[in-house]
Write a structure and sequence with these properties.
Number of domains: 2
Mean pLDDT: 95
Radius of gyration: 27 Å
CATH class of the largest domain: Alpha Beta
Strand content: 15-25%
Number of helices: 17
Helix content: 25-40%
Shape: elongated
Structural class: alpha+beta
Bound molecules: adenosine-5'-triphosphate, magnesium ion
CATH architecture of the largest domain: 2-Layer Sandwich
Strand order of the largest sheet: 1-5-6-11-10-9-7-8
Largest sheet: 8 strands, mixed
Oligomer: single chain
Low-confidence stretches: none
CATH topology of the largest domain: BirA Bifunctional Protein, domain 2
Length: 420
């Protein structure tokens, strides 16, 4: 193993590709920030208990994928595998649900950890931007979140994504369905592990990717036929609201999602260019989660979008984000005196809010101009001894190639003017 290798299932974000990740995080969070969602940040680890209760003892995330550790002090912690349980825990701890009007609307961005089998689009360390709207049961809120995610993907230029929508029922109708499903599943030809799953989380069996399992599920009872009237009406309202917003979705009654806490509305965003790791994001309503982790009744809804897979989706569609060059002016000093003088100009530009960079290390003109080109700067400032003797610097427009001598004392102002 090389010394310079990131751990298995992880990768580093380095320039220039890292700029795309920043832009994706920015694009996903922008519609949230414009819609009343406040920023929240929680620790990278939590007491393991939070996820065991909040995500669910029967989920793959908790049974197989969680990084758990015991501290020297004996605390049982887990690196966070997802964001919702932590955000809700933090909101309860800070009493945000008592501080003002509900819902409490929050957005977050961060790293998550799951011990998975690494493959394209599936990593052990990945990044999500998420949103949670806590404390209100209102189909408009479910619709808002779906519409904002759609807006985020569209603003990035993504087109080949689809929205899958389903309702998982509530504490009235879901248990009835669960039992009907269990009765059906117990008669099938399934392996031991799947048989165990029937008893603890039968809906997850519907999610089984194997075709021999899927074949046996054709006649499984359908959740849709078991939804109570309240759940049906709620779901119809969500569908009508997102339809009215012009957001296209597909009803997918097989969509159950991997976490235990979902009730009613569930949705997933899939991208058709990603192969088997096709989910770029997902979410839903989790009306019982607060009580599951020991809080009051707080019906809530949220989503998390995967940044890594969104970047892969952009690459799959060949979308190039329009990322403006980070440097506007590049300074190339020729000689000791020019170094001091031009660095002074660069500092002045930076203080005026103009992005500027500098040819360090006293390189020759040719190498320095190469760096200037690579920086994407619109203007280059070049100065040698003769220029300084005349009190000027050479200002080169990198687009037109045009070069003009500008008085040194006016260089910063002239650049500010030209760059608008
Ligand atoms: P999958 O079915 O692919 O395992 P999931 O249902 O476990 O996904 P969620 O828990 O809903 O995923 O997380 C939301 C999003 O986070 C996913 O849609 C995906 O984009 C991203 N994500 C989840 N796990 C990973 C991972 N191991 N590597 C990269 N991205 C991930
Ligand atoms: Mg998963």
């Amino acid at each position: 193993m090389s010394t310079f290798q990131a751990p298995k299932g992880t990768y580093d974000l380095t320039p220039p590709r890292s700029a795309t990740f920043l832009a994706v995080r920015e694009a996903i969070s922008a519609p949230l920030r414009d819609s009343g969602y406040g920023y929240i940040e929680t620790p990278g680890f939590e007491n393991v208990e939070l996820f065991a209760r909040g995500v669910g003892e029967s989920t793959d995330i908790v049974t197989k994928e969680m990084y758990t550790l015991t501290t020297k002090g004996g605390d049982q912690l887990a690196l966070r595998p997802e964001g919702t349980a932590s955000v809700l825990r933090a909101a309860l701890e800070a009493n945000l649900h008592k501080a003002g009007n509900l819902p409490v609307k929050l957005w977050y961005s961060g790293s998550y950890y799951r011990y998975e089998r690494p493959q394209a689009g599936r990593y052990r360390h990945f990044s999500q931007v998420g949103a949670e709207a806590i404390g209100t049961e209102d189909p408009v809120l479910d619709a808002e979140l779906i519409i904002l995610a759609d807006q985020a993907y569209r603003s990035l230029g993504l087109r080949q994504f689809r929205i899958l929508l389903n309702s998982l029922g509530d504490k009235e109708c879901r248990p009835v369905y669960r039992e009907a499903l269990q009765t059906f599943l117990r008669d099938l030809d399934l392996d031991e592990e799947t048989r165990r799953r029937i008893e603890i989380n039968p809906l997850r069996v519907l999610d089984d990717k194997r075709s021999d399992v899927q074949k046996q599920l054709t006649d499984a009872p359908k959740l849709r036929d078991y939804l109570c009237d309240a759940c049906k009406a709620y779901h119809e309202e969500v569908r009508a609201l997102i339809t009215a917003a012009g957001v296209v979705f597909e009803d997918d009654e097989k969509l159950v999602r991997g976490l235990d806490y979902y009730t009613r509305t569930t949705f997933e965003f899939v991208h058709d260019g990603l192969g088997s790791q096709s989910a770029v994001g997902g979410g839903g309503r989790y009306d019982g989660l607060s009580e599951m982790i020991g809080g009051p009744e707080l019906p809530s809804v949220g989503w998390a979008l995967g940044v890594d897979r969104t970047v892969l989706a952009l690459e799959a569609e060949g979308v190039e984000l329009d990322l403006p060059a980070t440097t506007s002016v590049y300074a190339v000093p020729l000689g000791e005196e020019a170094r001091r003088v031009l660095f002074g100009v660069v500092t002045e530009l930076r203080r005026a809010g103009i992005a500027a960079d500098f040819a360090f290390g006293g390189r020759g003109l040719k190498g320095a101009m190469k760096s200037a080109n690579r920086s994407g700067a619109r203007y280059t400032l070049v100065a040698g001894e003769r220029d300084l003797a005349e009190g000027v610097v050479q200002l080169k427009d990198m687009e037109s190639g045009e070069q003009t001598a500008v008085p040194l004392t006016e260089a910063a102002a002239e650049l500010a003017k030209r760059l608008g």
